[in-house]
Hints:
Largest sheet: 7 strands, parallel
Radius of gyration: 20 Å
Helix content: 40-55%
Structural class: alpha/beta
Amino acid sequence: MPARTREAPPAVRAAEQSALAALQRAYELGxxxxxxxxxxxxxxxxxxxxxDLPRRRVVVSATxxxxxxxxxxxxxxxxxxxxxxRSVLRDLAIDHxxxxxxxxxxxxxAGPLRIxxxxxxxxxxxxxxxxxLDLSGPPSCLPWRTGPTSSSDPSAVRAAIEALEPAxxxxxxxxxxxxxxxxxxxxxLAANHGLAVLVxxxxxxxxxxxxxxxxxRPARATDATETAPLGSTREQVKAIDGHLLAIGTRFGSTxxxxxxxxxxxxLHRHCRTVVLCxxxxxxxxxxxxxxxxxxxxxxxxxxxxxGERLRRRLVALDPAPQPTExxxxx
Length: 330
């Protein structure tokens, strides 16, 4: 007797259809990089999108975990990396990744020289074209408390770059991101080593777009009666909204104006920067509109000073203790 397949609930199907439409619209507007999430649903969605597209029209990127969630119980091994890469390719129904990202923490745990040998073999088999070094932390980290590489050892990052020769650095970066430790700024590393930068979470989970554009999320335990994005508190959200008034006087106050300002700020930092945005069908025009307009160094400096002032205020309002080296966001 044939097995019955369970159909997804209507709400799930509607969400997937909306995300697929967003992907298609982004492609029509000129997007050339698609970054694949780690969930099965995101891979199925990407597979549907790629099935109707000439393969060479887009760069397909995905992060492949080189160790298990518990590195002690499931340490790095060549077989594990191969199995996970082939699983991604199978789910996407493609024969190779254009860009395979490995997390810096995984590489440090396994040893970059050991991983380099296996990567050369996988590349030789045509399973991926270029490597990215992923410096980003988990999405629960508050960007003003934890920089993009704050828990990385500078010598470990440099060793990974030298041993693995990545083409791209991946990092969570926005106007709210705390400065990286000396020697670990992703843009400076990219410039020094001739790499590109793939920026994730450029709008800080929409905190930078004002109250009308945010998706409510559970509040911090200290503010349990409220909802606020990214685990921030009510007072922190109010501080962000107050500071956004200064942005409006220079760049405009609509969601589209704020989007353009903060995306252009990041694109201005390095000539080989790609910015990844959330899949939101109603925002695609905002993501792409006006990115070619003039943006000066004075504009970038203005936003840099603005972000520094706001980060200081947000840190002062944060009730949680700062993470230690042993208890970090990573």
